[in-house]
Amino acid sequence: MIKKKEKSAPFTNNFYLLKMVWRITPWRVIHEFIATLISFAQWVFFTVIFFKFLFGAREINRSFEEIVIFLCSTAIVMLFLNIYQKWFGGVYQKKTSQTIYFEMNRMLFEKAANVDISCYENPNFYDQYTRATAEAATRGESVLKNLSTFIASLLSVLYVLYTMFSLSIVAGILSFFPVIANFIFNKIINKYRYKKDMEDVPFNRRINYVNRVMYLQQYAKEIRLTNIYSTMKKTYDKAVEGLNKNTDKFYKPIFWLQVISSLASFSIPFQGVWLYAAYCAMVTKTILIGDFVILASAVVSTTGMLSGFANSITDSFKNANYIQNLKEFMEYIPKIDECQKGLPVTDVKELELKNVSFRYGDGENILHSISIRIKSGERIALVGHNGAGKTTLVKLLMRLYDPTEGVILLNGIDIREYDLKQYRAAISVAFQDFQVMSMSVIENVIMKNAENDEERTRALDALYQSGLSDKLSKLPKQADTILTREFDDEGAVLSGGETQKIAVARAFAKNGKILILDEPSSALDPIAEYDMNEKIMQLCESKKNEDKIAFIISHRLSSAVNIDHIYMLENGTVIEHGTHAELMAKDGAYADMFVKQAKNYLGSVVTV
Q1: Strand blocks (E) in 464-518
Q2: Pair type for strands 350-359 and 565-570
Q3: Rounded to 5 degrees, what are φ and ψ at 572?
Q4: How many other β-carbons are positioned within 10 Å of the β-carbon of residue 591?
Q5: In what order do the strands lie in the sheet with 427-430?
Q6: Which tens digits make up the pLDDT trace of 171-219?
Q7: How do beta strands 565-570 and 549-554 pair?
Q8: Each residue of 20-31: b (16+ CB within 10 Å) or e?
Q9: How large is the average pLDDT for residues 22-39?
């Protein structure tokens, strides 16, 4: 679970994200600072230095030739600076902004792929992940812009204030009002905005969920054949209503704060300095008209620069709150390190579950003191009703979770001691809740690009073993046909049974030492199920696979008839185990379930 949100630290959080941007594209950081400095320097030049050159003397004593040279030199320099700024803003900035966006998302994707799978069962994880993905790239650029503005505006303001104080101390002091007002009011406004954004997240997540349901193909039949649309519409409408309430709740105070801030930070000090300068020039005669022109122009630039300076500070505080979500997400330390190093997995001689119990989070135990031992070359079946704990046991075997109590041993060694990637590489698995990707059939089997003929041949063999060869021959591009039509109008849409064969083919193609088939025939008709079971048995029985360990998890007991050892689970506990013949002879829960299922298949009483 993602840790509880900590208080944000403006300085460290902003530099945390700046370092991420620097690692992605350091030259963008450098050019951003250069371009911002140029922009403020031009502002200072035209509002202060330009007028100071023309009117700064006690009397205007510049020659026409000096003014022409000054103006021509200024035009040439500004031309080159404008060319640079056009290149930066029109070309380089847009290109690197895409780079920042994609690389930030890639970092988030990699992190999401490495957090504990238990996080995906926690709504708070989705909220934090949503906030992190929504903000990462935009906040990266915002931090870069704010820090460059902070430095450029600070340097510019210092020079302009020096000029103003040299002309009038009172005018210089009055110029600080925008900074104080902006800082105070913007900090309050940003707190309101941040709180609104955080309260909007659950509503936005529901809206995004409804959007996905309405356009994804796998939901189309249910939407058209049931009344679920009305329920989804209510969910959508409630989420929109929640967003609207938040808007009313937060934006009324934000509006009035913005009005007061505008008066306090711009109108009053701006007009005040101008009135004071005019009074000094026209009434008390303490400054000359030339100084009045310089001071009046400096007031314009100082007000804007100080506002920018204050905004960069308050925006940094605002960004810090959003960055805290990203930082906590990126710094989350998983309980199971996906990059964990350890002992190499050289062979698989024996796999043992020893008094294994497990519970999700703080809930009750799902599994209770499970003990199973299986040696190389053996096949076992985990059977039982839905909800008995079979799939949870599979997750523990794959080390997607670690047991709450007890231990799982490979060759007598705790599986937590092994290199995690090597351990999982030794497992071939067909999930019960598998997913078909919008990729080619070949890529769906080997779950990567086919980089050579050997990988392609391995995928084709696995498809043949799973019983999909006939279907492939009818597809427009055969094994290179894209599955689903999300990106390809000629893509193939397979039936439930056909997609399940894809999942089984994945397990066959990987050819791991440990084979786990979780409900491998649940979507198949009885004849197809029989054929699939025969192929699975042939795969496990061939001499080249004598070193394999095979787990078949099923609530259909027909899959277990020829298995070496059967474990029947109920409420997370092994209630019976033995061969099919032994369990039938006991006439217990297994035998009762088997006979009932046989009746369903044959439509009459089956004598065993």
Answers
A1: 514-518
A2: unpaired
A3: 80, 15
A4: 17
A5: 427-430, 514-518, 549-554, 379-383, 565-570, 573-578
A6: 666 666 666 777 777 778 878 888 888 888 888 888 888 877 776 666 7
A7: unpaired
A8: bbeebbeebbeb
A9: 92
**Residue 375, SS3?**
strand
pLDDT at 273: 67
Which regions of 431-559 does DSSP assign to beta strands (E)? 514-518, 549-554
Which helix (H) or strand (E) element contains residue 383?
strand 379-383
Coil, strand, or helix at residue 573?
A: strand
Burial classification of residue 470, based on how many CB atoms lie within 10 Å of its CB (0-12 exposed, 13-18 middle, 19 or more buried):
exposed
HSE (CB half, 13 Å, CA atoms) of 31?
Answer: 20
CA distance 568 to 370: 11
Question: How many of the other CB atoms lie within 10 Å of CB of 499?
Answer: 18
Which amino acid does the sequence have at 352? Answer: E
Burial degree of 11 (CB within 10 A; 0-12, 13-18, 19+): exposed
* pLDDT per position as a tens digit, 73-93: 888 988 999 899 889 988 898
* pTM check: above 0.70: no
Does residue 436 carry a pLDDT above 80? no
Strand, coil or helix: what is 414? strand
CB atoms within 10 A of CB 541: 14
Q: Please, what is the end-to-end C-alpha distance for the chain in angstroms?
A: 49
**Pairwise CA distance, residues 332 & 3, whole Å:** 7
Mean pLDDT, rounded, for 143-160 = 85
488 is written with which tokens? 């390809």
Strands 514-518 and 549-554: parallel
pLDDT tens for 282-308 read 777 666 666 666 666 666 676 667 767
Please give the structure tokens belonging to residue 578: 């033995």
Q: Are 336 and 314 in contact (CB under 8 A)?
A: no
